[in-house]
Amino acid sequence: MKKICVVTGSRAEYGLLRWVIKDIKASKFLKLQLMVTGSHLNNMHGNTIKEIKIDGFKINSKIKILSKNDSEIGIANSIGLGIRQFTEKLTKLKPTYVLILGDRYEIFSVAIACTILRIPIIHLHGGEKTEGAIDEALRHSITKMSQLHFVASNEYRNRVIQLGEKPKNVFNVGGFGVDSLFRTKLLSKKKLEKELNFKFLKKNLLVTFHPETLESKKTNIKSFSNLLISISNLQNTKLIFTLPNADTDNNIIKKKIIQFCKKYKNAIYFKSLGNQKYLSCLRYVDAIVGNSSSGLAEVPSFKKATINIGDRQKGRLKAKSVIDCKPNIKSLRLALGRIYSSTFQNNLKNVINPYGKEGASKKLVKILEKKNSIDLVKKSFYDLKF
What we know:
Blueprint: E1 2-8, H1 11-26, E2 30-37, H2 49-54, E3 61-63, H3 72-93, E4 97-101, H4 105-117, E5 121-124, H5 135-145, E6 148-151, H6 154-162, E7 170-172, H7 176-183, H8 189-196, E8 203-208, H9 217-231, E9 237-242, H10 250-263, E10 267-270, H11 275-284, E11 287-290, H12 294-297, E12 305-309, E13 322-325, H13 329-338, H14 342-348, H15 360-370
């Protein structure tokens, strides 16, 4: 049996990987190994390893690499610590493949360790662009260290091939987040309110804002402060905040969210909603506001609006339900007004999600069951013919 070692380092990433893990575990030809790292093991980010345990998955290794220091130096040190610890644990587990998703720095350290240890990498969601974040460079670097690629669209497949990867090893299976929302049993509005201990109002917004990691702390503080000012006077509107990822300068945004929720009775925050509650929230809110990739990849399937702030997601495919706006008060208020206009609401009915439909996880497993890992480590650069 081929041993597939899946690595997860954040709540958002686990939401995309959950069904991949389930389908690998259920396969007669694949053996699941699971490594948990990053914010999953941090109480400030909700200690979300609890969700993985509730799902019944055996965890083979826990890799603690997060630093209390959320500066560039702290992040760089976490990468170094990750390389050392992943190298040690992977040497013991001896997987056939390591499966990783996306572009976060925790995952970058896994990819480096695998490359040195000559372990083939399966990379999910490569070929995408996020020009406002350091993730952009990390993602393309991970692509070059990986042997098998599972992407969300033909545009992303072409970009991975453009990076020199052989077409026969690049598979367009659709978005794993879309797959997750179609396969997850969502909670009723009444049950969700009970579990989260709040009541939805006439209008409801889910706010998810992360630092733009290519911007300065001063710029990130200004952008988020403008967002808070823009939503502070909204009438009869429930504001549901999720705390930011473990990115550079995330602590200042956390503090501002907590202070805002203490001041405004219509605002509430969660360290982590968990996959089921997060997707269920998307079902009942009017829009998601912020700069999360979820607003582009999953929310359009609910026929709901996304206000996408700033450049963090610049370059990604976007449905017509996405409203791009600058991080200034005038632009934010115009976007907030637009989501409730009758014209925009009517157009939402015809929105098509560019990240496809369900089925990504099962397609991936079927391909892995047949794929031979021999000689995958030795790659030749695939040149495009002009």
